[in-house]
From TrEMBL:
Name this protein carries in UniProt: protein-tyrosine-phosphatase
Tyrosine-protein phosphatase domain ranges (all copies): 1-137
Active site (catalytic residues): 65
Organism listed in the record: Tetraodon nigroviridis (Spotted green pufferfish)
GO cellular component, one term: plasma membrane
Lineage: Eukaryota, Metazoa, Chordata, Craniata, Vertebrata
Origin: domain of life: Eukaryota
Pfam families recorded: Y_phosphatase (PF00102)
Claim: Hydrolase is one of the keywords in the record: yes
Amino acid sequence: LREDDRRVRHYWFTSWPDHHVPQCSAPLLRLVEEVEAYRGSLLLPGSRPITSSDVSAAGPVVVHCSLIICPGLSCTTLSAGIGRTGCFIVSSIGCQQLREAGQVDMLEKVCQLRLDRGGMKKTTEQYQFLYSTLAQNSSQLQHQKDQTPLEPVSIRLQELNL
């Protein structure tokens, strides 16, 4: 790439209904993980979750979730980019905070986003979906933590039934 060229990777969440939420949060969590893994791959060989300190090194993620209708040769973009986009951004930030700190203040994140873009996160349904998404992510993180190999001392104690 030339110095003034930029590489763009486009993710398109096609099954998210306008003004509503998906029926389950698993596809959104997969999208968050995929975007994060890709950004991490730009930093170091291999793929790893990035931390907040890595963000500036990897470059920005541009998010706009819109409904695009292409009835023929022309396409029309519908949506203001505040509902679904806000859900993605809060989910991404929330997953990162859960991983790094073990907790997230979703209301604080939504309020911060609204300072940057008015109307971000519009409906009660979207708030409920976000809580559900972050609860599912928290459960996944706990399950991964529980699956980590035990230290040799712990294994030996279990063998001795102590």
